[in-house]
Design goal:
Blueprint: H1 5-10, E1 18-21, E2 25-29, E3 37-43, H2 56-73, E4 80-83, E5 99-103
Antiparallel strand pairs: 1-2, 2-3, 3-5, 4-5
The structure holds guanosine-5'-monophosphate (5GP) and zinc ion.
Guanosine-5'-monophosphate is lined by residues 5, 14, 16, 28-32, 85, 91-94.
Length: 115
């Protein structure tokens, strides 16, 4: 997708700090980290959200990379939170499927009050 910021990162049209890459998956640092570790994992192919018609194999591969990226980021032992935002109420802002890994601190139980 020409208009998608994460497709542009995959194509190296815009820069990102890449943490992990293989033929199907890319992981890179979030540009506006909410926690000391805040890494995004995406399929290289464009799917707009978790509700898209994503081949189960690719979805499995995407989530199987969570622990791998967590190990690279040094939070596999201490723990972390995995988030996939979807749509307006989920506060999805980039419409290319992505998995957030948040860690490096003891996270609050709730994400906070709605505004
Ligand atoms: P969402 O709210 O859609 O789940 O999260 C999108 C995330 O992408 C946000 O945490 C935001 O900081 C991050 N983000 C948006 N644009 C860019 C970008 O160009 N580069 C990087 N590295 N992260 C981005
Ligand atoms: Zn995209």
């Amino acid at each position: 997708m020409t208009d998608c910021v994460f497709c542009k990162i995959v194509a190296r049209d815009i820069p990102a700090t890449v943490v992990y890459e293989d033929e199907d998956i890319l992981a890179f640092e979030d540009q506006n980290p909410q926690t000391p570790v805040h890494t995004l994992i995406i399929p290289k192919q464009h799917y707009s959200s978790i509700s898209d018609d994503i081949p189960p194999e690719l979805l499995g591969k995407l989530f199987s990379k969570v622990k791998e990226v967590a190990k690279i980021k040094g939070v596999e032992e201490s723990g972390y939170r995995v988030i996939v935002n979807k749509g307006k109420d989920g506060r999805q802002t980039v419409f290319h499927l992505h998995v957030h890994i948040l860690g490096g601190i003891k996270l609050p139980i709730f994400v906070g009050p709605a505004d």
